[in-house]
Amino acid sequence: MEFDFTTLPEQDRYRLLSNFVAPRPIALVTTLSPDGVPNAAPMSFFNVFSQEPPILILGIQMRPNGTIKDTVTNIDASGSFCVNMVDMALAEAMTICGISYAPDVDEIATAGLTMTPATRIEGGWIAESPCAMECKVAETIRYDRRVIILGEVVQMHVRDTCLDDAGRYVRPENYQPIARLHADNYITSDRQFELKAPAAPPVGITRKTPT
């Protein structure tokens, strides 16, 4: 099958991209409105792109009627946001936060979650999250129906049991984030395996370092 993305309707492009670029980690993004109302919204168009500087990227679609979502409004006003990673214990609450509420509704409280004051930014992070990353906006790219936000991580909060004693690597038995596949289908990282590169590359081939 061949698909010409220069002529393909938007929904068909979304369906194909989100079906095949998967699984995608979920960012439960918390922000604070100019009126001081906490907001939380799940996003699967999200990932980490750099460690120097430490950059996360969010892709936030406009509402079907073309209006800007509360998350974008809040980020524009404060210049910051927090990414809370989602595991199975947070999965149901994450879907509740995905409902379109009025701007004056505290979605974190509505979902039965706990807001913890942030250290380096306005607003806060979700105490039930295994890992939360406070971010300051580094750059915003605006398209007609989508906003791409680059956030620089300035503080990370990690549940003690998620890391080994040296604080270097996650314990896979304790940190199992979920990710989105397509439509309402998700996957959890509870079936992990180790895959190491060969000890030496074939003669005449230089091994590349993963980035």
From TrEMBL:
Write down the species. Pseudosulfitobacter pseudonitzschiae
Q: Which InterPro entries match?
A: Flavin_Rdtase-like_dom, Split_barrel_FMN-bd
What SUPFAM superfamilies does the database record attribute to this sequence? FMN-binding split barrel (SSF50475)
Q: Which family does it belong to?
A: Belongs to the flavoredoxin family.
Please report the stretch or stretches of sequence annotated as the Flavin reductase like domain: 20-171
* Cofactor (UniProt): FMN
The protein in question is named: Flavoredoxin
- Supply the gene name: flr
> What keywords sit in the KW lines?
Flavoprotein, FMN
Pfam families listed in its UniProt record: Flavin_Reduct
Q: Which domain of life is it from?
A: Bacteria
Where are the coiled-coil regions?
A: none
The protein's GO terms of the molecular function aspect are: FMN binding; oxidoreductase activity, acting on the CH-NH group of donors, NAD or NADP as acceptor
